[in-house]
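can u do me a favor
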């Protein structure tokens, strides 16, 4: 059975109601003459626990807002398969992430600019950062944070840093502070310390209601193909085919009068592009997909951060493990939260790098204080390739972990060579879910081929743009959400400028 074809006058369409998609939907629908349709493959999944920091993160919470699957075996890490996790709900990964909010250092954006990415220097992006941040105080950096750390171990770590004269950074996200040092993290939390995901922040119910004439949200619907007109010298995106996520026989063709914007994230976006015939010819031919454009850049690069967690014993009551091992503590904290909305349940997961040591026996009297050694700027790129033509079949993600010897050496030095690296990585190395660069912003014939130009337009295809974490020219040595949001803000600014220009001309 098929839904009828629909036409939304003057529609822009955003596929993927994730972090960037939601911000775009908010910004674009501010203008009444711009109709936006957001298509999200999963459901709202709003539960009591989904706003509680400790219970809502992918690592701690229920599975209803995640998609988890195994990566391709990692050749340079004993063929280990890594766990791939992506958000799959309204708000995307912002519903399940660690809520850590870091801009990263200005030099990395300036590096993008120096590589020719016009409009993407730190100064160019500064207004985009500010636009999505909420002021708590007078300082330049102004997102929210807890005023105190939750666990004494974090305080001890700060004291130890002071003792060693290791610099303490008071504002992690200020470009005026040194990058090296110890700092308290900032988070997406509201005034009461609850998770403040993009779903809650950018498309609250009253806003959606007030814009119902030009903002449409379609959930549990997957975009499985972009449609093209091939009448001109280059393909033009004309709309998308949507299928009910749980039943492929229910489908809908949507016609986009202005353009199609893909915001499916660094794994979902190359998958949709390849299923639509935009990808390396050999990959498409192998899947018997009609080639719309032989596009070597799509999914050919993929970057992520590899983390090696280290942990140290601390007293049990300094650790989240107390919740697990001491039922009375768990009950006390639960009641504290219910009655006063206070206590451990408000602790964001990554302040709880005081984490369980799986190697310990259940009866261990210790808590753990964890440190992660992270490869921030991996040099060996991975790939994303289709495994089948079914959108619901996750693609093959090959991280190419430690594919360059230089990275192995760096890690060995950091771990002080005290253990056998391969064995250690095999047991402990993990992705920290910062997938990016799979449809990078660069020239199409760059040595590492690009997919979109500086205005996020897909090379050689009309009316198709990408706005999500897949377009970063290269991975940043920080968490990625701030920049994914800035990409959406920047895109919205570009569209508004285009609209203003055409109004002035008319
Ligand atoms: C477990 C985890 C923890 C993280 N922790 C942090 C952190 O603490 N701080 C930080 O800065 N970053 C963190 N990140 C990374 C950050 O969440 C992402 O970089 C960011 O969300 C990327 O935004 P996006 O818009 O590109 O994609 P996403 O937010 O992943 O959104 C993509 C959306 O597209 C939808 N979709 C995909 N394919 C289709 C399709 N074919 N049709 C319709 N819909 C589709 C998905 O369901 C999803 O909602 C974390 C990520 C994960 C997974």
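np, heres the sequence
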């Amino acid at each position: 059975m098929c839904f009828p074809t629909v036409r939304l006058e003057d529609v822009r369409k955003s596929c993927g109601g994730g972090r960037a998609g939601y911000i775009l939907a908010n910004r674009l629908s501010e203008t009444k003459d711009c109709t936006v349709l957001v298509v999200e493959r999963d459901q709202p999944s709003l539960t009591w626990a989904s706003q509680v920091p400790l219970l809502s993160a992918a690592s701690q919470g229920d599975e209803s807002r995640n998609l988890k699957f195994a990566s391709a075996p990692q050749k340079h890490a004993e063929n280990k398969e890594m766990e791939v996790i992506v958000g799959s709900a309204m708000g995307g990964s912002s519903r399940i992430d660690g809520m850590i909010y870091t801009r990263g250092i200005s030099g990395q954006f300036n590096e993008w600019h120096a590589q020719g990415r016009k409009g993407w220097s730190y100064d160019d992006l500064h207004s985009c950062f500010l636009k999505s941040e909420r002021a708590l105080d007078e300082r330049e950096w102004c997102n929210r944070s807890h005023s105190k750390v939750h666990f004494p171990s974090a305080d001890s770590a700060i004291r130890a840093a002071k003792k060693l004269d290791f610099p303490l950074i008071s504002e992690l996200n200020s470009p005026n502070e040194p990058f090296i040092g110890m700092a308290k993290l900032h988070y997406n939390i509201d005034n009461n310390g609850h998770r403040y995901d993009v779903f809650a922040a950018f498309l609250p119910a009253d806003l959606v209601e007030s814009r119902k004439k030009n903002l449409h949200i379609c959930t549990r619907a997957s975009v499985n193909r972009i449609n093209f007109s091939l009448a001109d010298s280059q393909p033009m995106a004309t709309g998308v085919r949507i299928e009910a996520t749980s039943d492929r026989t229910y489908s809908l063709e949507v016609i986009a009068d202005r353009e199609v914007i893909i915001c499916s994230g660094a794994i979902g976006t190359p998958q949709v592009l390849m299923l639509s015939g935009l990808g390396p010819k050999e990959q498409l031919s192998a899947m018997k997909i009609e080639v719309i454009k032989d596009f070597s850049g799509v999914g050919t690069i993929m970057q992520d951060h590899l983390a090696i967690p280290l942990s140290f014993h601390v007293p049990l009551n300094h650790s989240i493990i107390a919740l697990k091992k001491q039922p009375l503590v768990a009950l006390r904290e639960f009641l504290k939260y219910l009655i006063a909305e206070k206590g451990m349940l408000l602790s964001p997961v990554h302040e709880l790098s005081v984490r369980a040591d799986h190697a310990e026996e259940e009866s261990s009297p210790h808590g753990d204080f964890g440190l992660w050694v992270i490869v921030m700027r991996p040099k060996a790129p991975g790939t994303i390739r289709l495994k089948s033509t079914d959108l619901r079949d996750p693609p093959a993600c090959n991280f190419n972990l430690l594919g360059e010897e230089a990275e192995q050496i760096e890690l060995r030095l950091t771990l002080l060579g005290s253990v056998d690296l391969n064995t250690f990585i095999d047991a402990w190395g993990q992705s920290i879910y910062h997938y990016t660069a799979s449809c990078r912003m660069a020239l199409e014939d760059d040595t590492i081929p690009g997919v979109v130009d500086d205005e996020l337009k897909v090379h050689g295809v009309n009316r198709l743009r990408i706005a999500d974490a897949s377009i970063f020219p290269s991975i940043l040595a920080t968490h990625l959400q701030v920049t994914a949001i800035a990409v959406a803000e920047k895109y919205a600014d570009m569209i508004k400028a285009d609209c203003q220009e055409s109004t002035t001309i008319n």
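Residues 1-6, 352-363 have pLDDT under 50 and may be disordered. hope that helps!!
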